[in-house]
Write a structure and sequence with these properties.
Thiolase_AS, acyltransferase activity, transferring groups other than amino-acyl groups, globular, single chain, Thiolase_C, Thiolase C-terminal domain-containing protein
């Protein structure tokens, strides 16, 4: 696996009001992110860069990080993937996360921030039932995005874990480390 370093992250302007997320069209969120990235590097012309996609983690773009004086914020410590019977599709993130944690030599309680990206609430409840040690108040402290930089929006976190269901019985997970 190629090592990927996240040098920067942009939080999208979504907030929670009385238990409901403020609505914004995905195009508006993407525009906000691109605008924020361009504001940070106003002289950057993405068309002149052959091996870096602005705002996208890319193994080829890591060479561009060297020489900038910037340090990577996190590294991917381990990944996990899982497939289950499609009748139990919502539980695939559980096994994927267990595999990623084992590969990172981490215990279940080691990550300070845990993300579970699942669209239906019933799926989250099913995953929590498979993880009895997972306190329901612990996952998704900032909303539940599967974005790699998201678990580290909170300062002071040393390890984060993210698990997501990608459909039809497939689950992916990663462990991020500072």
């Amino acid at each position: 696996m190629n090592t990927v370093h996240i040098a920067d992250a942009v939080r999208a302007p979504i907030s929670c009001h009385n238990g409901a997320l403020a609505s914004d069209h995905p195009d508006g969120l993407a525009a906000h992110t691109i605008r924020a990235l361009l504001d940070r590097a106003p002289d950057l012309d993405p068309a002149l860069i052959e091996d870096v996609d602005l705002g996208n983690p890319d193994g080829v773009g890591e060479e561009g990080l060297r020489g900038t004086g910037r340090e990577p914020r996190v590294r991917i410590g381990a990944t996990g993937a899982s497939a289950t019977d499609p009748h139990h599709f919502g539980l695939a993130p559980v096994e994927a996360a267990n595999r990623a944690l084992a590969r990172a030599a981490k215990e279940f309680d080691d990550p300070q921030v845990r993300e579970l990206n699942a669209a239906p609430a019933a799926q989250v409840l099913g995953c929590l039932a498979e993880w009895p040690e997972f306190t329901p108040a612990v996952p998704n402290p900032r909303g539940g995005a599967g974005a790699p930089g998201h678990p580290f929006a909170r300062r002071g976190s040393g390890t984060g874990a993210a698990a997501l269901c990608i459909g039809v019985g497939q689950g992916l997970a990663l462990v991020l480390e500072r």
